[in-house]
Each structure stands twice: as structure tokens, then as C-alpha cells.
Amino acid sequence: KQWYQRRVAITAGEGQQILYVFIVITTGACLAFGLTFSEYLLLSNTSSITFSICGIIKEIVTLTLASTIGGDQLSVVNCLGLLICLSGISLHSYLKYKKTVAERMAKEQQLLPDEETLINSASSSNGDI
Prior knowledge:
This protein is mostly helical. Helices cover 81% and strands 0% of the residues. It is elongated and about 100 Å long.
């Protein structure tokens, strides 16, 4: 008989292993889909800097879990790189926040009428009475 004509019997132990592998792969696929979908929602509702900050937070959580659960050791270079990355994101967020506040204040000042406009509108409404 050829190899494709042979019937293979799967034992109970092999069936459990196949089921376990299937569950692990399916769980990983569902987690990856959830992560991708949450990134899409985050980007569609917020700015790219928020996405970057969430990515850094995800990396911090991953590194923390890897060191506590997995027993991984962070080298000095890894810690230094993480600090540089965090400080850069923090500085960028702060500068973007300051720019947003300045733009908001400028917009509010444009919406407020100046004193001359108020005086002219008050005098014209008093003359109509």
C-alpha cells in the first residue's frame, strides 16, 4: 500500500495532544485578532501619540511579565533603552499637550469679540430703542 492509502488510527493520548495544540493555536489567534481590533479602534478614536503611548505601556507590561513569570533578566542596556523611549514619549506628549492648550486658547480668543465690537453693538442697540 502507498502511504496515502494507509489508515492511521489515532489513540486517545494523541487526540488529547491534537486538541491541546488546536486550543493553543486558536487562543493565540483570538488574542492577536483582539489586539489588532483594539489598535484599530484606538487609532480611529484617538491620536497617533495615544497609540504610541499604549504601545509603550504594552511593552512595559510584557517586559514585567517576562521578568516576573518567565524569569528573564533585563540588562542595563535594555533598561536604558526603555528609559530613553519612555522619556521621549513623555516629552512628546507634554509638548503636544502644550500646543493643544495654546491652540484652544487662541481659538477662544478669536471667538470672543473685542472691546470695540462690544461698544459699537451696544451703542447701535441703544440708538434703536
